[in-house]
Amino acid sequence: MDTPDTPHVNKERIDTMEHLSAAIGVSRPTLSRYFQDPDNVSRTSRERIRKGLERVEYVPNFFATRMNRKSTGMIGVIIPYLNDLFFSRLLEAIERAAMDVGYTVITQCSHSDPAIEARAAETLMSMNVEGALVAPLGNHSDLDVHERLRSRLPFVMVDSRPDTMPEVDFVGTNHYHSTGLATEYLARVGGPPVFLAMPRVNFNAMERERAYIAKMEQLGLEPRIVGVEGVSGAGYFEAHGQAVLEREFSSGRLVASSILCVNDRVAIGALRAAATHGLEAGAMQRGGLRIAGHDDYPLCPYTVPSLTTVAQNVDAIGRTAVARLVESIRAEKSSGKQILKLFDGEMKIRESA
Amino acid sequence: MDTPDTPHVNKERIDTMEHLSAAIGVSRPTLSRYFQDPDNVSRTSRERIRKGLERVEYVPNFFATRMNRKSTGMIGVIIPYLNDLFFSRLLEAIERAAMDVGYTVITQCSHSDPAIEARAAETLMSMNVEGALVAPLGNHSDLDVHERLRSRLPFVMVDSRPDTMPEVDFVGTNHYHSTGLATEYLARVGGPPVFLAMPRVNFNAMERERAYIAKMEQLGLEPRIVGVEGVSGAGYFEAHGQAVLEREFSSGRLVASSILCVNDRVAIGALRAAATHGLEAGAMQRGGLRIAGHDDYPLCPYTVPSLTTVAQNVDAIGRTAVARLVESIRAEKSSGKQILKLFDGEMKIRESA
DNA sequence: CCCAAGAATTTACGCATGTAAATATTATGC
DNA sequence: GCATAATATTTACATGCGTAAATTCTTGGG
């Protein structure tokens, strides 16, 4: 076995193509073409280079290559936060889709901060990404930043979008459908559902609230919303759901209601509040409390009781967003035609409702 | 209000410093210095440039700047997967710490795939990052890749490390302490704990298993381990915990035991299995079932019952890892002295045990 | 064996910036 | 108003690689 001081790999280290060229006797431009696509050089050179690369260590400089290529082959992605399994799933879907069509993705995370979001946009532009995919922060986003990106390169919004940019390309979930589905389901199996909302800073949250109201009116029921007040933030979804229902349950309200939560993380807090008050949501339970969420957060099957929810088609959203972006990158001249792709949700009926 | 076709920002777009220099009457090298640090140019030029930048749109080319600077000011981070709130917390801690000391972090995610991990390492080297922080995949990692990185630039491992690299700089949790703490606690309040393990591919999982055994022997108790067989993978922690306990409970085993789970995600699956069998873990419950986890996953306070666990000091780990890396970047000549920072865990006693 | 067509390689230049050294400008003190 | 120092700007070259155009090499046919 090797000792710590003799690593497995101690080939000669070479740091420019020029030197590599000298070391293995193939001209630099030929090497350049080899690294872009090995099939671009003759079989003999290809073998010669491969052999050479086994003797010396060399990787082309990322920046130099990117700077000089006509196209960088990169797309930029901005997401609001990482500490949410919904966004990590979305990001993964996007990365896979991009990889499949030969693009590298550069991810920037806003960390719930508009200033960081703005800086992320600057960074993407300075890297000459060929297109940008952004999931906005919500009301806190600086709209100028988005407009700036949009006016500069192919641009697609994912997951949620501001009311003020109705004309932007968008890929997401049809919340009128998905939330409607859940509302309808709850109204059918339990009493008229109450909506556990969030402070109105998140576009999707607002849209789901509106969708809930619309569906309730359509059903001839009285909409009822709790939880729009309070602080908000990525880290506090569960705490918000718990706090709101703690308050309600403590006063004896909502203990036998159907409750539709704006998303699963809020619902997880809601389940917790119920448990604390000796309540258990579920179709099988006496008492009539029902709790449902939205998104199909990966943990939903494991909560106690398991959480009834409506799934977003995350994979399709990621794939479609990338496809649309690549299409408009290739079109060069912006086609002008706005694309709007809204995927339906799918009910996941589990124990909690 | 603006129409869609007249975005707020439609300043003249300038794409090189040369042109910017012509446009606002300041020499290019002066601009270069301005963009590196505005304080590097005279007050008058600074004002002149600021005014100019309000009229035209320009951002320095990321690649050109990075290519030419002596130091890139970037550190690379490789993490095994994103769909785990532990790693997103760690990543956030690292990003904040890096930002504080003026470094930009480039994150690469292995997606549980050694080939992608290897490519990530290549990418980092090709970007001339000044140091690398890696959380390895586990047994599947290609050790040569790590050795290669380590021999090339300042290198620190975080979270877990292979047995085969005992001499590498490492920052993580002292699992002999943390797991010992939990083992001891369970032994004290309940019966001798059983360890719900994982397939032996994850370094931390293995270390916790060993720590459990050591502590049990120290306490004069018989260690007992379940769940080492089965498939593994980032996406299946909860499913694994659930499946193992489903099997046990179905045969009437472990229904009144103290169970220490290798991590919180496995514990969440365990809680679920218990609920399915009409069992509820907890100090307050009759029956004697107790379940504890490890990590203090953000959802622990919200599970039903809330999950007793031992917290890793994620912030400290992130900060310390970055600090160590930056230190050895600045030292230039590798000091040779290995650094090992292990943080103690902290018991979080909740309902489940 | 020679010539032409085709393929591969080399030459030469370009990319957008950093940076050291040389020069010009401004400020300071008297 | 002048010499000098301090500061700012310009000149000139460097970075590592992409790429079009020019050149060399290979191959096959006659």
From TrEMBL, chains A, B:
Gene3D superfamilies reported for this sequence: 3.40.50.2300, lambda repressor-like DNA-binding domains
SMART domains: HTH_LACI
Top-level lineage group: Bacteria
Name listed for the protein in its UniProt record: HTH-type transcriptional repressor CytR
Gene name in the database record: cytR_4
Organism: Pelagimonas varians
CDD domains: HTH_LacI, PBP1_LacI_sugar_binding-like
SUPFAM superfamilies: lambda repressor-like DNA-binding domains (SSF47413), Periplasmic binding protein-like I (SSF53822)
Residue span, HTH lacI-type domain: 16-84
Key words, A-Z: DNA-binding, Transcription, Transcription regulation
Cited Pfam families: LacI, Peripla_BP_1
Keyword Ion transport carried by entry: no
GO MF annotation list: DNA-binding transcription factor activity; transcription cis-regulatory region binding
